[in-house]
Structures are given as C-alpha cells and as structure tokens.
Design a protein that fits this description.
Distance between the termini: 82 Å
Strand content: 25-35%
Number of domains: 5
Radius of gyration: 28 Å
Oligomer: single chain
Strand order of the largest sheet: 11-18-17-14-13-12-19
Number of strands: 33
Length: 648
C-alpha cells in the first residue's frame, strides 16, 4: 500500500459528518451548532464553502482537533438556506453589475447579469434574490426582485426586517399561478364527504381590520336540551396538498408576520383572503369540532370532521362587546349565551391551574403614509375571551383525541403545542423579588406555583408594581414550542394541547389537520420527519416574533422623534450593567438611560438578585418597577434605539 493511500485511510478514520446550523461571527469565523453536541464546531473562514449565516449545513468534522481545543470542521454542503433574498446596494460599472449586501454578517457580493437588473440603476437600494452559485464561480449570481425607494424609509425598514429574518417579501410567480388555479366552487362530490352545517346560525368575530377569517362559531338548541356549538376552521389542507408548490412555500415561511403597517402572509391572498376566508354570505369548506354542551358548561359529546358552512354575519370584537354590555343587538341571545359559557370555561381553566397572565396589546395609529400618530392600548375584553375559550376548547379536544391513537404501541407523531413546567432555578430569584413587594409563593409543587402566580396576579392588579412583576413572571416561564413529545401545556393547565384553529397563518395547524384526517379515515401515514418539522415551525415562529418586536420598536422610535427634549413619567422596565430601561407611562415606549448618563451623580453597580442598579457612594437604587422621570434625549431610527436622560 503506497503512502498516499495510507494517508487517505488514516484521514478518513478521523473524520465524521454531522448536520447543524451555521452561526458566523462578525470577524468571519463560523460556528456550527449541532443538536446533542455540547460544543459548537469551529469553521475557519476558508472552510465556510458558500454557506451563509443561519444556513443548515453538512460538516466534515476533524476528530483530532478535539484534544484540549474546540472541534474544527469544514462545510461540505448547504442543506437548507436560511434566506435567499438580501437587501443592499447596486453598483453598476461598464455594463457589469454587482450587489453589495447590507449586513453585519460576512456575505459575498453578488454578480447581477444586466438582463436581471429589472430597472435598477447604479446606487439603488435593492432586494436581490440569489439565483445560483456554481462551484466554479467565486461569487453567487443574483436577480433584482425589488427596488426600495428612499422616499419611504418606513417601507424600506419593514422590508429589511422581513428579509433579515428570512421571510420572502413576495411569492414566486409559479406559487401565485398555482393559487389562481384553485376553484372556489363547492362541488357535489366534496359535499358528499362533509357534514352540511349551512342552515345553522354561524358567524365570525375578528379584529375590525381583519381580512382573513379563519374561524367561525355556530350555535343552535337541540331537542335533548343541550346546546350544539360548532367551532369551524378554514379548511386550508383541502386546497394546499402535501409537497405541492403551495405547500412548500407555506412551510418555508411557516407563519404570517404581523408588522405595524402590514401583514407578510404565509399563504397567497387568493387562499388567505378569498378561498379560505370564512366571509359572510358565502359557502366555505371547514374542519370542525361540534360540541353538545349543557347550560352549566359541561361537554356531553363532541364530533370531529370536515364540514361546509355559511357564515350569516361578520362581527368585530367591538361589535360583540357592545352586545355583551348592552344585552341587545344582532343575534344578541346567541352572543350572550356563548359569552356565559366562555366565562364558565375560563373559570374552570383557572381553577384547574391555568395561569392568568393579562394580555395588554400596544398598537400604533398610523396615518395614510404609515407614520405613527398615536398609540392605542388594548386590554383583553370579554368579546376576546369568548373566542379565546372556544378556540382553546377545540385545540385541547383535538390533541386529546390524537393522543389516544397508538401505532405499534407508540404515540402517533403529531405537532403538539407544549409549555414546560417552570425551572426552579429560574423561579427562585423572581420569588425572592416578589417577596420584597409583599407577595409570597408556595413552591411545594408545580400546581402550588401556578396557584401562587394567580394569587399574585390578582393582588397586584392596578398597583404600581403590576407591570414589572407580570413581565418578570412571564420571563421566568419556558417558551411554548411545537414538538411531537406530548408533555402538556403548563401555562394553560392542559394535559394535551395543539394548534388547530389558525391554519391560514400557522403551518403547524395545517399539519394538525392532515394528521387528524388520516386518523378519522383510519389511514395513518407515520411522518418520520414530524419532529424536524416542529422544530422548523418553532424556529420560524421565534423569528416572526423577533421581526414583529423590531417593527414595533421602529414605530416607537419614529413616534418619539416628535417629543425630543420633552419630559415623561416612566417605569423602570429592565436593568443591566450598562444602564436601565424605562417605559413611558403615557405611550409605553421603551428607551435606555445609560450608566454614562448617570456618571455625574454616582458610580453604579448591578445587583442581579434585586434587579437593580445601586450607587456605590450614595446607595441610590434604580430597581425594576420603580417610577422615574425621564427626558427624551435621542431617537435613532437606524438602530431602532431611544435614549433617555434621567431627571433627578
């Protein structure tokens, strides 16, 4: 055996191949995070091999590099791109065009053929899609898909947020064409497969500006004295078939993204706003759970299956709240009965251990150009709770049904929505902090913790420390995720839970509908990739939330530009070694008071256990929940950053 062959054999015995997500640091060094491995794999810049930050990659690992040092590897393939579109600037010289991405991560310039400029000229801020990257080429080839107009900074900012988080701005033409081919006709053949609910009183309740209505409620009295209440959900899976062009586009996004001035939808408008939207006075395909319920809120029977409905009326939440308050109006008897039952369900949930975190939503009032001119704070009203309780009931019922089905004595892979029990170590500092305000916790078991949380939330209501304790309480909780491992939902107090009720805007709901129909048909196809799909959906959900938070922050900064130099009352909403965050009482806009800003007064140190900054000489304390006065010092739109001065 020659030396070269021996060397090759020796080399192969010390290498293995793994798959993970690439994280590229600003300096260009790469780190691949592999599930199940304690340490990341280090990738030198020359070994990144056409991969981008966030990509799922295949790595050849050099086992020998683990001797006291971090394991090193080389990327040999890109399995899945995190994003294919980028924002940046175009450079055009002598009929040769290059695109320079605007990102703090190392991304190469793109070559853009002249025929793919689509009207862009030198210096334009553009969105470019990567078309290909041949192994023989040093640079990827791109195509201009959109020109961002500098006159509309808001539009540019929102689009950049979406692209940076891997959400395509538009659907490919082939996807739109597939959506247009779908028929809205209710066929006789399909009707024969469904329960016909069109003659039952049915209506939708949604935000006043909603366009996609994916849930409806029906109600009628039965001869046995029970109420029949149906929860009807848009049947997206009828139109979006597995592995189709539409399905792949929806899975890639996995969720709609809701920014202050727009929605970036998971599905083309032809599906989300037309075919599947449960609009009034139209026959629609739905997937339903129909309950028989007593006037005491006892569930006596339920039926699950595909249906066809006809919505008789479209209500806004405000319409329904007016009916609840005045006890009169369109279909008021049905609304009042549903509300009474919903409140009974709600009480039962909290009695059984669900945690009652209040939901306060801050929304901007925008002018015709998208500029924020005011802020509206929305509290959860009984009309919201009415819909919430019936959707929770449907989601729980579906999860319970599927959880009983076994394949070869093993649980059926299914996208459950789970929420882990609280981590005691994370809980301890919060419990100690709450005690300083006079609130005690029983840590005997998880049920006692939930009861303590509810007692705290009830007692703190309306008090100055309410907001900070609610926010800190939420932060101590685990994040809800999608997984095939059914461990229940601690926050809701449910042993089984899934998402069934919003398939227009969430891909896991589409997966739930598909598995559910297979169970009903007794024709189950076990999806071995279920856990991988759940993880993808959880990742995309997290990215959507980050995008939405960044969009709201942009609007906060844009709004507060009107108040530079003005003074406001605020509440300290967070502390760090470099300063403290303050949320204005009037507008709920958060900014930072830096340590540097406080340096003339004292030198401050962070006390993590007390969630406070404490002055070394004066003992002056800035603690989460404290009331302070601030002045708006700076509003930086590029960084989405507000700077406040503390006013002694």
């Amino acid at each position: 055996m020659d030396k070269e062959k021996k060397s090759t054999e020796k080399k192969s015995s010390h290498t293995s191949t793994v798959k993970g997500r690439l994280d590229i640091a600003r300096g260009g060094m790469g780190y691949v995070i592999v599930e199940g491995m304690e340490k990341d794999i280090v990738i030198k810049p020359n070994d990144i091999n056409r991969a981008f930050h966030g990509d799922i990659v295949k790595v050849q690992v050099n086992k020998e590099s683990g001797r006291g040092r971090r394991t090193e590897g080389k990327i040999i393939d890109v399995v899945e791109r995190k994003q294919n579109t980028f924002v940046g600037n175009l450079q055009l010289k002598r009929d040769i065009a290059f695109f320079i991405p605007a990102t703090d991560k190392p991304v190469p310039d793109f070559f853009v053929p002249i025929e793919k400029l689509n009207g862009a000229i030198d210096g334009d801020r553009v969105v470019v899609k990567m078309v290909k990257w041949d192994k023989s080429e040093k640079k990827p080839e791109g195509e201009v898909v959109s020109i961002l107009q500098a006159t509309d900074l808001n539009d540019m900012a929102m689009k950049e947020l979406l692209i940076d988080n891997g959400f395509p701005l538009v659907f490919d033409e082939v996807v739109l064409q597939e959506a247009m081919k779908l028929s809205e006709a209710i066929s006789r053949e399909e009707l024969r497969k469904r329960k016909d609910c069109r003659d039952i009183l049915t209506f939708t309740i949604d935000p006043v500006d909603a366009k996609d209505f994916d849930d409806a409620i029906s109600i009628r009295n039965l001869d046995n004295g029970y109420y029949e209440i149906g929860v009807h959900i848009a049947d997206v899976s009828h139109f979006v078939q597995p592995n189709s062009i539409l399905d792949k586009a929806a899975y890639e996004r996995a969720t709609s993204v809701y920014l202050p001035d727009r929605v970036n939808p998971m599905l083309p408008e032809r599906i989300s706003n037309e075919l599947c939207s449960l609009r009034p006075n139209e026959d629609k395909y739905t997937f339903s759970v129909i309950f028989q319920i007593t006037n005491r809120g006892e569930i006596k029977h339920h039926w699950i299956g595909r249906t066809v409905i006809h919505s008789d009326h479209r209500f806004s939440y405000e319409d329904v709240q007016t009916i609840i308050d005045s006890k009169e109006g369109t279909h008021f008897n049905a609304i009042l009965l549903l509300n009474e039952l919903a409140q009974q369900f709600r009480k039962q949930r909290f009695d059984n251990g669900a945690i009652n975190f209040s939901s306060q939503e801050v929304r901007f009032t925008l002018d015709e150009t998208g500029k924020p001119i005011g802020i509206v704070i929305k509290e959860s009203s009984e009309s919201h709770q009415l819909i919430e309780e019936f959707m929770l009931l449907a989601n729980r019922t579906i999860a319970e049904y599927v959880s009983k089905i076994k394949i070869d004595k093993e649980p059926l892979p299914f996208p459950y929505r789970i929420h882990a029990n609280p981590d005691e170590e994370k809980l301890k500092p919060f419990v100690a902090f709450a005690k300083k305000f006079g609130y005690t916790f029983d840590m005997k078991d998880d049920a006692a913790v939930a009861k303590s949380f509810n007692n705290l939330l009830k007692e703190v209501n309306g008090k100055p420390e309410q907001h900070v304790l609610e926010q800190l309480g939420i932060r101590t909780m685990a994040k809800a995720i999608y997984t095939s491992k059914n461990i229940g939902h601690y926050g809701l107090g449910f042993e089984h839970y899934c998402h069934f009720t919003s398939p227009i805007r969430r891909y896991p709901d589409v997966m739930v509908h598909r598995v559910l129909q297979e169970c009903l048909d007794k024709n189950i196809k076990v999806d071995k990739k279920m856990e991988e799909k759940c993880k993808h959906c959880s990742d995309r959900e997290r990215k959507a939330m980050e995008t939405e938070r960044a969009g709201n922050k942009y609007k906060q900064v844009e709004f507060m530009q009107n108040f530079l130099g003005d003074d406001f009352d605020g509440i300290i909403s967070g502390v760090a070694s470099f300063g403290f965050f303050v949320e204005t009482v009037l507008h709920k806009c958060e900014g930072m008071v830096t340590i540097r800003d406080l340096s003339d007064y004292d030198e401050f140190r962070l006390d993590e256990s007390d969630y406070a900054l404490i002055g070394v000489r004066t003992g002056k304390k800035f603690r989460m929940g404290d009331s302070v006065k601030i002045q708006v010092a700076a509003a930086n739109l590029d960084k989405r950053q507000l700077d406040y001065h503390w006013l002694p």
